[in-house]
Amino acid sequence: MELSLLLLPVFFISSLRCNSLPQNSPQADAFIGTSLQAVAAAHPILQNQPFILVWNMPTANCPQRYNIHLDLGDFHIVENKKERFQGQKMTIFYRDHLGKYPYLSRNGKKVNGGLPQLGDLASHLSLTVTQLSDLLLPDFSGLAVIDWEEWRPLWETNFGSKMEYRRLSKLLVKQEQPDLSERAVTSLARQMFEESARKFMEETLQSAVGERPKGFWGFYGFPACVNKNKRKTDKTYTGRCLRGTRQQNDELSWLWTKSSALYPSIYLPQKLAGSADAALMVRHRLLEALRVASGWPYHNNTDHATPVLPYARLAFTHSLKFLSKMDLEHTLGESASLGAAGVVLWGELKFAKNKKQCVLLRDYVHNVLGPFVRSLRSDAERCSLQVCHGNGRCTRRHLGSGHRLSDSSKHFQKHFMCHCYQGWTGQGCQDKKSESREEED
To answer: Which Pfam family, just one, is annotated for this protein (predicted)?
Structure first.
């Protein structure tokens, strides 16, 4: 690591939060790549490995009902005991499984008040604490994901079907203050919605961390980067996030400093099957998440970045068609090459809905996914040991180069550099920092 990076971490962290460079430019990407090194890498989690794969699929039916075993452990895929969907290594909370999350049902019914500003926060937090105590052991140290997708905390990001939250929020203001102008109504409705949304998300995280402080808590799909489609100004697909994405994510700094892990989504639409564009989509989603992880570390702890573990599907969105080896390279491989701490593999109950589907899943795990994961984990570990003395995580020297760990096993140092864990420094993370030096940094 360069001396300037060691001496000026605060400067670089602040730089990650500014928009002085054009958002969608190679110069900005290069600057982010340099700035990410200003904060130590997130430590390995769950296992002492630089990169892990975690199973978050309800597949217990396969071994229990059909005697079809996926043998995930043989491929070093982290799983709960008996492939339970919620367990001590990995758990996810949907909208009706944690507290009293306010939302609108598909038929328009107001559940728990419907709008964040009409929800009962105190009752929600009380129930949340009870549910966490019942489900998770006191020493829980696994991944804990809150999946709330009905509304988003920033007013302008509630578009499409989520516009109903904006409409009802304005209607609520009009009912209470009928003499306000339309502009004033919108402004007040926005303020009330965002303040309440923030309280629900922020205080839910605080309660969860307070109850199970060793867990890695975060919200699914955050930070967001909308980049599925080509922008109007692009001649070809670039994968870059829509303009304004960084500014929106900067406004959510309160969420990042309360999140002990970040879980962005890298699900692939079927139109990107086998396409190099898939890697571009995943790359820019991860770069934005890594920027946030370094710019607003958990609890504002500048000692190390927040771990990033994107959510990936084994199949394309809205289908059961499995990803090919190339598609896995564009998702899991891209994540490892950019320095993510791991990937969470998600899928719905349909993957284990009957014996036939369980057989298909087992064959896919045994013949495609499993061997790929085993090789990818091995490459990430070898690069860490060979280049970083096991004290850091390998990341691309040039983030947009497309170099893969799997392609570079004989040339790790040429295409990859070290992102050292807390307490280590040097180009190869070979030097242990003294306590006094760490305090100075």
So the answer is: Glyco_hydro_56
CA separation, residue 367 to residues 209, 274, 322, 364, 370 (Å): 39, 18, 12, 5, 7
Give the confidence band of 130 by pLDDT, cuts at 50, 70, 90.
very high
Residue with tokens 């489900």: 135
- What is the Cβ-side half-sphere exposure of residue 306, based on CA atoms within 13 angstroms? 37
Give me 128's structure tokens: 């949340």
Identify the pLDDT of residue 16: 53
pLDDT of residue 411: 79
Pick from 39-43, 215-219, 258-262, 298-302: least confident: 298-302
Degrees to nearest 5, angle at CA 159 with 171 and 181: 35
Fold that domain 3-89+142-149+220-440 belongs to in CATH: TIM Barrel (3.20.20)
Catalytic residues: 149
Domain ranges of the chain: 3-89+142-149+220-440
Q: Is the pLDDT of residue 194 over 70?
A: yes
List, in sequence order, every residue forming a beta bridge with 431; answer none if it has no partner. 425
Global pTM value = 0.91
Other C-beta atoms lying within 10 Å of the C-beta of residue 202: 16
Q: Which of 73, 33, 78, 32 is nearest to 51 (CA)?
A: 78
SS3 string of the chain? Answer: CCHHHHHCHHHHHHHHCCCCCCCCCHHHHHHHHHHHCCCEECCCCCCCCCCEEEEECCCCHHHHHHCCCCCHHHHCEECCHHHCCCCCCEEEECCCCCCCCCEECCCCCEECCCCHHHCCHHHHHHHHHHHHHHHCCCCCCCEEEECCCCCCCCHHHCCHHHHHHHHHHHHHHHHHCCCCCHHHHHHHHHHHHHHHHHHHHHHHHHHHHHHCCCCEEEEECECCCCCCCCCCCCCCCCCCCCCCHHHHHHHCHHHHCCCCCEECECCCCHHHCCCCHHHHHHHHHHHHHHHHHHHCCHHHCCCECCCECCEEECECCCCCCECCHHHHHHHHHHHHHCCCCEEEEECCHHHHCCHHHHHHHHHHHHHHHHHHHHHHHHHHHHHHHHHHCCCEEEEECCCCCCCCCCCCCCCHHHHEEEEEECCEECCCCCEECCHHHHHHC
Which amino acid type is present at position 424? W
- CA 238/CA 400 separation, integer angstroms: 11
Residue 308 pairs in a beta bridge with 262
Give residue-wise pLDDT tens across range 17-55: 545 445 545 555 555 666 677 789 999 999 999 999 999
